[in-house]
């Protein structure tokens, strides 16, 4: 069981709030530290089922090269499967009138966003490869019409998914796809399943008081970040294309009572599945009559997305003690749902560790925004750290409590896993020990992955808690640019004979406007760092290559998005397409693209650029 660790840090926001677990998990109340440099280095080890996380990561890496090169289909030849609507209970009604939809996982509904001469803004050829879609299809005059939802696709069975969720720690009941409509699932020649979804395609029964549309501003951000995160090697949903609708959408961007007409747009999102934690929570919350729906949905998920868990054989290596003082064990072969919950927990932990690696802050980590597959999903008010600030949140709605700030993300991930396992326990798929064990595995997986990441980011031979802790503390004090600092760190030579007054020369571009006292603190740290590097036996050149392969030069800073948005709103899509190209290879130098690695300009601090609401 994870330790309950105090997280009050002098350099983090005093508004950071403690997170509480649901009543079914009160006995555990596990707590991860708010900022990674306070993680304990010692963790209990289990002799357990080998996690499939590594294989999942390898599969994601292969996506860059996936796609059978000699299979190129036109749109009409795509192989639609539609297992979700064929195998799970659906809503008998097909209208889009907002309502409570009971005893159903989805509602069949057609895209309904009005369009007028829709235009193709941007597209991803690497996603087309996953679908085995011929890139020439992007040149079709009717392509924007088809992917605006205005022209039906033969074989597709569009629907909106029904799910619930906790929003900012409070159960919100039914939520569902309020403006996203899944076209269906495509099977490629490798039998890989890909769900295509149009975001901004119109009203559904889950739209509540909203119009079901999306604006160009938020759609550009979602399209670009989906592909940028993939370039960074982080598990994510993908984006095939982005089209304008040619129609205006009224939005009050700052919630200040001054709405304005903005260009409408639709993103075609792609993922193996858009199932979320809330997909299971909703039905578990509705009483025993819906427990069978939770089981059916879990069986469906395992059958198509975790098939290795279907026919496990008993093996001593996956019988795991849950506590050093408790001789009882969790045998994951005896309950596939327990094995599944553990894998979901570990995938989630691994994903969030990668977020912390690159300074990504999701902004809205509600349980309805947590993917069952450990994918980054639902790009709303996200942001990458510019200045190193553990309390940073890109979401104006989150400012009062900063629940979803950068430093809190590991804790929130654990809290969300607790809600997920609570739902499975309520539906009688897990017992309490199995639920607790899934949460414990989340904590161990996160700390293992994060320590490995930080070791590689600094080019060390082994994890050094003190050295890394001091570094992150110094970065937070001086608000050092997170991305550029780690990239510059590879310029330091492992030479203990360098004169003291030259130690900070490799970091001059990132240690700006620091006084004498802070200069002394940094000099002391660099000395310790060089001493540690000198024991690795790795040459400076080799280490630089290695560090630059994990510390990106380019990230999707908010001001870059805003520049592309400003141009696109004037019908110039060139900057969106250029950003997409740069973000495909964030670890490469790309000498002609240096401007995309610059620090944010002064105008980037204006409202609406680096602080965003959920109005989209």
From TrEMBL:
Family (UniProt): Belongs to the SELO family.
Cofactor(s) this protein cannot do without: Mg(2+)
Species assigned in the record: Anisodus tanguticus
Presence of keyword Ubl conjugation: no
GO molecular function, one term: ATP binding
Keywords: ATP-binding, Magnesium, Metal-binding, Motor protein, Nucleotide-binding, Nucleotidyltransferase, Transferase
Annotated PROSITE patterns: KINESIN_MOTOR_2 (PS50067)
PANTHER family: PROTEIN ADENYLYLTRANSFERASE SELO, MITOCHONDRIAL, SELENOPROTEIN O
Domain (Kinesin motor) ranges: 1-28
Protein name: Selenoprotein O
InterPro entries recorded: Kinesin_motor_dom, SelO
Gene Ontology biological process terms in this record: microtubule-based movement
Single GO cellular component term: chloroplast thylakoid
